[in-house]
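Late entry, NDP complex.
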Amino acid sequence: MASDILSLIQQRNPNEPEFLQAVEEVVTSVLPVLDRHPEYRSLKILERIVEPERLISFRVTWLDDQGEVQVNRGYRIQMNSAIGPYKGGLRFHPSVNVSVLKFLAFEQIFKNALTGIPMGGGKGGSDFDPKGKSENEIMKFCQAFMGELARHIHHRLDVPAGDIGVGGREIGYLFGAYKKIKNEFTGVLSGKGIGWGGSLIRTEATGYGLIYFAENMLHTRGDTIKGKTCLVSGSGNVAQFAIEKINKMGGKVITASDSSGYIVDEEGIVKEKLEFLKDLKNNRRGRIREYVDQYPSAVFHPADEGADHNPIWNIKGHCAFPCATQNEVNEKDAMNLVKNGVKVVGEGANMPVTIEGINVLIDNGVMYSPGKASNAGGVATSGLEMTQNYMGTSWTREEVDNKLQGIMRNIHDTCLAVANEYGKPGNYLAGANIAGFLKVANAMKAQGVI
Ligand code: NDP
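Prediction complete; structure with ligand written out below:
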């Protein structure tokens, strides 16, 4: 049965490996749901849920600092609106294509459902590479991108946010362009600045939420993050605030990375060093090796593109948090983590562990949380930003942080309860996929064949 549906989806979506990987992971988990609810089969919920409601592709033309014409591709995928307006980030990275964005939009459907906030799934972005571009070029590109995107989004229809390559700076330029084109000030984007409609804690939310989730997992075994040595990959938004929260909770982080390589700092990336890293990445747009120039006791290892494994995952640690990008932990990496006695692997990035890698972790009793559960704090806080915008109010840091902690605990408990109910105790992957699917499938059923 799984293979029938999967081969149909494969035939309809050739050359989309990332999307097919994300679909396979969900379909495998939800088959027991279809056995209990045959009506989902006859209503073709699976066949419908893998088809974007709308896939928008557009040309983005802009002038660089030399006056040369540049042409990029822009996209917005409005994947599923069964439970609320489309919600999901924008990614600016040269690797962006339809397959990558469809996988992200598909994951987003279930993640958003898990938050308990009414948000549908969407994702978008461009193959534009922000690296090496001037401030002026970034602004010009954002304005050109929004020149087309503005036709397709609205604060009650589709509310994009940031993702790889799209942080506070880009959201500012995108928001300014939207406001000028539409002549309206609304919460059409989340991740806005605090002085103009943004929510406190939104910047921190994905990384903080990830560590709250890991703490909940550890509590089920009477354990805590305090005193744990942690491996983190990436050095962008998610990684930075995961490191900050681990430090605050008494753990020690010894690694960080970017696409040029990784650093190991056995003494820990403590507060002062983290502030240096934030400044390096967010303001000076530097490379991770510069960390070692500043703190010579750390060691830099350049990335090896041709390697069959990622050596950052062969370092000894109790917890591992991949926070860079998809498929950065393969089967061999998972085996290395298990060999070194890892207890927890929490996904900060989207789909950072391959299906083979996930199987190794689960089969070896590692507490593994899929990104759609453990990185949902970011979109949940975007949902809180939307609510504040609708209400015309802003909540305090403590209020938002308390809500975030409650949401992460709720997602954790839901995953465990649903996994139990479906005979997969302790399996957060099955719990997350089934719980997210049930919520969306029920809404699709109620709304008829549309
Ligand atoms: P950022 O752009 O802030 O940082 C991304 C980090 O990952 C950078 O250190 C970057 O290095 C590294 N990286 C990106 N691509 C690659 C690659 N192909 N190989 C190696 N390293 C790479 O993005 P975010 O921190 O926002 O996002 C990281 C992950 O978290 C993504 O998977 C994203 O989808 C996910 N996520 C983000 C959320 C958010 O709120 N921001 C919410 C939920 C999930 P370099 O600087 O060299 O490119």
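The longest helix spans residues 397-421. Will revisit in the morning.
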